[in-house]
Amino acid sequence: MATVISFNNSYGRLPEAFFRRTRPVAFPELRLRALNRSLAESLGLDLAALDDSALAALFAGAELPAGADPLALAYSGHQFGNFVPTLGDGRAVLLGEVIDRDGERRDIQLKGAGRTPFSRGGDGLCPLGPGIREYLVSEAMHALGVPTTRALALVSTGETAIRETPKPACVLTRIAASHVRVGTFQYFAARGDTDNLRRLADYVIDRHYPAVAESAAPYPDLLAAIRRRQAALITDWMRFGFIHGVMNTDNMAVSGETLDYGPCAFMDAFRADARFSFIDQHGRYAYANQPALALWNLTRLAEAMLPLLDADQDRAIAVAQDVLGEFMPHFESRWRAAMCEKVGIQKPGDGDAALVQALLELMQQNSVDFTLLFRRLCNAVDDPAAGENVRALFDNPGAWDAWESQWRQRLEAEAVPAPERAARMRAVNPAVIPRNHWIEKAIRAAEDDDDFSLFNRLRGALVQPFDETAENADLMLPPAPEERVTQTFCGT
Ligand code: AMP
Ligand code: MG
Fold first, then answer.
1. Residue partners of 448: CB distance under 8 A and separation at least 6
2. Are residues 24 and 172 part of one domain?
3. Burial grade of 77 (CB within 10 A; 0-12, 13-18, 19 or more)
4. Cα distance between residue 292 and residue 28, in whole Å
5. Whole-angstrom Cα distance, residue 300 to residue 448?
6. Where does a domain end: 307, 335, 363?
7. 0.90 exceeded by the pTM?
């Protein structure tokens, strides 16, 4: 195949211990189901001469483009708290890297491209449903401004993945700042391979945290820089009501991007303990646990990095504790700022955290839809009569009244014109998010009837999450009781 992708590969030049060379497998019947043309453009890909069947061959790995160096990356991971020394890419192949139009290095990965040397008992396949979910949710996250991997293409393969029932399979082309995870550090730490651990840390500094290279203490500063991006990321998830669902250490990217959209979900009605993942029976990764679990993962990262933090182990532990001790205060201050912004407070002060907390408690007691409440709150600012529409979201509407008057009083203390305040709130409180019941309907139509029209409609709508339009009115609404989705699956 001609040069359609100008590869600029770096991971394959690391020592052999970092990966296994592999090949995407051949599939029976490829069909291009989605191509993200604006993303392809920003990556500088030259796809103009390719028709849909050539594009399907490219994004299923059937035709290897010139310059590709397909790798399965090695990593370990704590899965639900249990350490597994060898995981690695069992159903994904890194095709190579490109430098995008902004000068950023990006991985191009084919997820679901068949078995690799890390597949263990798995089939290397990605069922279509989870592929559709990852496509929609990752692109929605990007549109919301949350750091995330992206979806470039979706190809159905004609292969069947045997799960609880047989499922059609797909290949999802994923773009990432990199696929280095906490588990990648654990992989070398578990083997006592300090040389490669240091090589990995240097690679991550060079690729993601170049400012740290100048530091007198680069490895403690690297840990601190990763910690800062994780605190920011978890705040972003939570301010949009997002639950990742599988925050295992192999699913936490050190770049600070959201990685691995498995059984993830945006909640409808607010619950601090909301969880959807079928495999998260005990709620380890429930909504409000996410900061604590991010810190747990960062602690595993710090443990893996100990030999780099200081030659003396006691001193290394003290360094790690210092760095990690900043996580919760940092997260909490970002969280307060984000929540104050959502309710329209421009200069947060004493008492505002309690005001926000009181609202969340009322929302939980009254099964109030998270996204819709904050969106309607925007309208209640420049149209006091619209307070009625907020009130209507509460099981017990009287619960809203006392909070509303406190809130209005608080806003009056800031001399901001109402239209300006409302406009700012509308820029942080989305109207359209990928609600579970819509994703589920799109999956059902695609899997059962080979109908991708709803998937395409959602793809179009989710790129403008802050716009309220007549065509999107139905996408904004919470599910009717019979539409409610209570469990999501990762498709492994
Ligand atoms: P995940 O839950 O998707 O983050 O995957 C955890 C680990 O299991 C990773 O090492 C995956 O590569 C591997 N894995 C998940 N599903 C499959 C599959 N169908 N075939 C082979 N490996 C898989
Ligand atoms: Mg994973």
1. none
2. yes
3. buried
4. 45
5. 42
6. 335
7. yes
Atom of ligand 1 nearest to the CA of 121: 21
Q: Which residue in the list 236, 250, 268, 280 is annotated as catalytic?
A: 250
Is residue 182 included in any domain, yes or no? no
Q: Are residues 161 and 238 in the same domain?
A: no
193 has catalytic annotation = no
Domain ranges, residue 22: 11-176
Same domain assignment for residues 415 and 468: yes
Q: Is residue 4 part of a domain?
A: no
* Rounded Cα gap, residues 406 and 203, in angstroms: 51
What is the per-residue pLDDT across 339-376, written as a single tens digit (0 to 9) for each? Answer: 999 999 999 999 999 999 999 999 999 999 999 999 99
Q: Which of 286, 316, 335 is the last residue of a domain?
A: 335
383 and 320: one domain?
Answer: no
Query: Which atom of ligand 1 is nearest the CA belonging to 116?
Result: 21
Q: What proportions of the chain, in percent to the nearest 5, are helix, strand and coil?
A: 50, 15, 40
**Are 347 and 310 part of one and the same domain?**
no
What's the gap in Å between 214 CA and the centre of ligand 2? 32
Going by C-beta distance under 8 Å and a sequence separation of 6 or more, which residues neighbour residue 370? Answer: 241, 266, 267, 268, 269, 270, 363
Q: Note whether residue 428 is domain-resident.
A: yes
Scanning the structure block, which residue is given the tokens 């109908």? 451
